[in-house]
Amino acid sequence: MSAAEAVVARPRFDLRFFRSELWLIFGRRRNWAGLAVLTAVPVIVAVAVKLSAPEPGEGPDFIANITANGLFAAFAALALELPLFLPLAVGAIAGDSVAGEANLGTLRYLLAVPVHRLRLVAVKFAGIVVFVIAAVLLVATVGAVLGLLLFGGGPMVTFSGTELPFWSGVVRLLLVCGYLAVCLTALGAIGLFISTLTEQPIGATIAVVMLAISSQILNEIPQFAAIHQYLPTHYWLAFGDLLRDPVATGSLWGGLLSAAVYSVVFFGAAWVRFTSMDISS
Fold first, then answer.
1. What is the pLDDT of residues 134-187, one digit of tens each?
2. Where are the domains of the chain?
3. pTM for the model
4. DSSP annotation string for the chain
């Protein structure tokens, strides 16, 4: 630990430092480009269904129900982006969080401010959480708004066959966004830890995305059923249970617990690694 760090009596969350981190995330053109790609999916889904509506029973439930209620365009977009695009976006931000600073040579100067290492890791993780929430809400909002414009709203038919009032459907959409944000935050924590292992942000991003894809592949292989519930992506698609009436909470609670454990464990691992590592750049 440097002498600069020693003068800090205790770690504390600095809002100015946090605002600076948010500017690094949302002020870069490449991140705006990534968010633009995320918004393209709900646009494509809504326009495609408008041009060629699926027949009853044709295609996944999320897509087949769009013509009945435009809110399902948001659910369909989230379901389509969850396997790759959302993990890629989260992986890019998480992988760049520490490795990007090291690669640019600014990490050493950050610690000379002085900034306590725990506080720095906490701010980096908080920035990832904000980005995750923003990305999920962006996809859902674009899908919902465009879907409602093209197909209208009205009562929402649940997967159980019952009808919910329009605003109850909006609440279900917000709950889905919250659930997926929690799940993707766990992936962000893993990415934060990987980012402390290297000075190459691209390598960290690739590692995070490959981990997410590998987890999804393993989850589809019956021979690995014994480890399915321990995979970080196992409960991601459980958000569909929020569209049942009544809500099926079993898998949802499992997903929240899994995400919480992964977040705590890998945030702790990132802190331990970052605290003990020698900052040379």
1. 999 999 999 999 999 999 888 998 888 899 999 999 999 999 999 999 999 999
2. 11-276
3. 0.89
4. --HHHHT--S----HHHHHHHHHHHHT-HHHHHHHHHHHHHHHHHHHHHHHSPPPTT-S-HHHHTTTT-TTHHHHHHHHHHTTTHHHHHHHHHHHHHTHHHHHHT-HHHHHTS---HHHHHHHHHHHHHHHHHHHHHHHHHHHHHHHHHHH----EE-TTS-EE-HHHHHHHHHHHHHHHHHHHHHHHHHHHHHHTT-S-HHHHHHHHHHHHHHHHHHHT-GGGHHHHTTSTTTTGGGGGGGGSSS---HHHHHHHHHHHHHHHHHHHHHHHHHHHS----
